[in-house]
Each structure stands twice: as C-alpha cells, then as structure tokens.
Amino acid sequence: MTTPRRPSAAPDTVLVTGGAGYIGSHVAHTLTAAGRGVVVLDDLSLGRPERVRGLTLLRLDLTDPGTPARLAAALREHRVGSVIHLAGHKRVAESVVRPLQYAEQNVTGLLRLLRALADGEVRTVVFSSSAAVYGDVTAGRVTEGHPPRPVNPYGRSKLAGEWLLADFARATGSRTIALRYFNVAGTQDGVLADRSTENLVSATVAALRAGRSPVVNGTDYPTADGTCVRDFVHVQDLAEAHVRALDALWAGADVPPALNLGTGVGTSVRDVVARLCELAGRPGAWAEAGRRSGDPAAVVADVTLARDTLGWTASRGPTEILQSAWLHRPDADLGGGAETRQRDRA
C-alpha cells in the first residue's frame, strides 16, 4: 500500500465538478471567499452559468469517453491540486425508473474523473455522497458505522462511488473523504438558489408560487405524524463543511473514509410543508398523496464524527432554511426593482 502524501499547504486551485449546480455553486463561492483558486467543471445540463460568473468554467461531460484526457490536460494547465466532486444526478424517484442512467452519471462519471486525476497526478478528493446509502433506518440517529443498505438506485450509485473512491485511494495513495449529505435546502443568495422542483422544499415553493397545493407523499409511515422524517441542513453550512474537509485532508489529519453532514435534528415532511404554506400566507394549503417508491421512513444524522474530526457543526436550523428558500424564490422582489427581479429569475 502506498503511503498517502501529506503536503503542508494547499495548492493554488481546487476543481469543483458540478460547480454550476445548486450545491456546487455554494461550494465554489465559499472556497473563493476562503482565498482558494477555483475551477468549475460542469456540462451545464443541470447547472446554470450565471451561478459561477467570474470563475473559470470547463464545460465537459464526465460520461464522455474522451473527457479524461482533456481533463488531465486542464488539471495541469490550471495547477489543480485537489477536487471536490459533486457532478451527478440525485433524484430518488427518477433513479427508480432510470437506474442505468444513474449508474452512468454517478458511477461511470466518477470512474472517468478518477482516470483524469491519476493522469494529472491529483491526489486529494472530497466526494459528494449521500445519506441515501443508509437506506431505511427507523431507530435513532444514523452513525457512519451503520451498515449501508440503500433502498433505491440513487443510493446504490453513491455507495458504489464510495467503494470506487476507496479503491482509488488505496491504489494511488490519495487522500480522500466521502461526505454523506442529508437533506440539503435553503440558499445563501438568490442567484445560487435551488431552481429545481425535485426536492421537497423547492417543489413546495414552486407549487405555492403557482397557486397549487403542495403535496405530502405518504402519511402512514411509522413516525410521529405519519410522514417521513428528514434531517434538513442549510446549503451554506454544507459548503463550509467542504472547506473544512479539504483543509483536514491537506493538513494530513486523521480522517475517516466517510462523514455525515446534517444537523442531528429530524423534521417531518408535513412540518416542512406546513411552515412553507404559512410563509406563503396560505396556511394548511397542502394535499395528501400516496407514498413515493424508494422513500425510507426516517433518516436523521448523528453528526458527532464531523464535529470531532472537522470542528464543524451546522449553525442554521429549519426556520432559516425555509425562510431563505421562500425569500429567494424566483418571483421574489427583494426591493431592488427590475434588476433584482431579473437576477432572481435567472
């Protein structure tokens, strides 16, 4: 086994794959604010270029067989010394009906990235994983030692990615860590806000904006109010954790292979939807529907290891998460007139 190198200082540039996406753009700008050089890789199929205006953007598709050679050259050109890998697909329901697409995007894409990193001699990787690797957990908070038993193709693709990353680290002596996200929501800025309608918070906001009733899927789970319980973490807290993780790798700290990123506090789906309805001035304006395939009943993080390893804890709770999501919805007028409205619709 090759001994991992332990450099004393970070290199000039961090590559953020998927950096024009919702989470990736928060990570990219947080790194910039911390004084790091940043290069963004994104195919812009889901990302938005306005989120990374002012940053170097490489428009590459990681699933393209020709990407590793082109990316390896770019790594050398931009003096990239570490990578935060967020590119991929993350919709649970979609993964159930398109499992091969998720394997291609999340596993093959990672494989081709690692080929480029091997050729470009980049040996520090922070990997975007997910609490979906744990599967259906019904008792207590989930520690990193909980046996991974994903219940949907998305979770299986993330677990396969963790295995692939671990093999790469052993073979090359790389310093790596997988960050298992719980439910990411909220925003730090209107331009960076989540514009999808796939996650619970963004889907509820979109429904309320359109005058529709948001939907609570499944009210017969073995939880306090019958709806799923999730650990919602603010995207800016998550972004700050990536900087801490990267610093720990470069400092040669003893880090585990995976860390949970959440708050340690569970909030029910019904509670989230009800609070957003109140913020919209439409209390109780939600409807019930059946369960979605692949949804576990309750998943809440034990965040002890992230606190002890990185000195990181989430500082923003559900109230700030939901208020920021509603405040920065696409139709919000934040008092800046037409210019502000146009920016937030971007």
From TrEMBL:
Q: What is its EC number?
A: 5.1.3.2
The catalytic activity, as recorded, is: UDP-alpha-D-glucose = UDP-alpha-D-galactose
InterPro entries with a match to the protein in the record: Epimerase_deHydtase, KR_dom, NAD(P)-bd_dom_sf, UDP_G4E
> Its annotated pathway?
Carbohydrate metabolism; galactose metabolism
Question: What SUPFAM superfamilies does UniProt report for this protein, alphabetically?
Answer: NAD(P)-binding Rossmann-fold domains
Q: Its family?
A: Belongs to the NAD(P)-dependent epimerase/dehydratase family.
Keywords for this protein: Carbohydrate metabolism, Isomerase, NAD
Q: Which GO terms describe its biological process?
A: galactose catabolic process via UDP-galactose, Leloir pathway
Q: Which organism is it from?
A: Miniimonas arenae
Q: Which residues form a coiled coil?
A: none
Protein name as catalogued:
UDP-glucose 4-epimerase
* GO molecular function term, any single one: UDP-glucose 4-epimerase activity
Name any one Pfam family assigned in the record: Epimerase
Question: What range(s) does the Ketoreductase domain occupy?
Answer: 12-166
- Cofactor requirement: NAD(+)
Q: Does the keyword Iron-sulfur apply?
A: no
